[in-house]
Amino acid sequence: MEGLIDIDNKETEDQELWKQLPNTEGEERAELFIQLAQQAIYRSSGTEALALAEEAHEIYKAMGAKASSIAMANAITGIGYSLKELNRVDEATKALDGAIDLLRQSNHPFLIDTLRTKASWYGEEGNWQKALESYVEAAQINEVDGISEFYARDLFSVAHCYHELGKFDEVITYALKAREIFKGEKMVFEISWCDLNIADAHAELGDGQAAITWGQRANDIGTLRKDNEMICKSKYVMARGYKILEKYQDAENLLLAAGDLVAKSNDWPQITKIERELIAIYRLTERDTEADEAERRIATLTEIVN
After folding, report:
1. Candidates 1.25.40.10, 1.10.10.10, 2.30.40.10, 3.40.50.720; correct CATH number of 1-108?
2. pLDDT at res. 4
3. Could you give the dihedral angle defined by the CA atoms of residues 146, 77, 133 and 230, in that order, rounded to the nearest 10 degrees?
4. Which of 97, 142, 255, 293 has the highest Cβ tally under 10 A?
């Protein structure tokens, strides 16, 4: 019922905006077009949203020097969001670049949010180098002028990009920086994710003991918070640490426990990771029949979800 009421309210708001449009001109008219574009995006009407945002942009261009750079940036951002709704992501990020240039010139507070938006879009497309560049700029601005929590979140995002790029020393560096700030703010949940990423990076670098140590920290917080996702992923990364140290039984026990936690979820990537580590353990301990059975299960799953 609440959802229907919300939709009705949005439609009413839409109608009111259209009623106002004939009586407006200049900047006021452009602002209405932007609001209508936002409503169209809410309805997933990307084509309509794009036309409306472009109309606003044309008005601002016609105003020349009378149009504020912030208003122009707002219209361009609307074009970017509309293109994103149409899955034209390359064009969308290029549009945001135009808005970012204008916001950068005026040092506007929206600059950081727009940089983060662009970074997240690049991340969705798997362009982690471009995502990294945007998050780094956001972090640099926040380091000087921002709130410490948001600076830490940007540092954590930088660490995530480095993880996707396979640069694990940098993951540790930036996750530790983020962790220190989160610790100052007593942000326990965020610290556990820093610890998990540090543990995973150590596992990737072949340092089994460090992977176990940092993984245990993440697991401790996950256990206290009854956070099954954190418990599962920390057990998984500790298992990788034990495998590096050739303590295969310890690794297997943790993997089985992690598998039990994730089994009823739809987190197929995590389920697959756990199974593949179990297969490696089975092969290392010469249990080829169990390994073959696990391979078959993974093949069945992969055929369905990929």
Report:
1. 1.25.40.10
2. 33
3. 70
4. 255
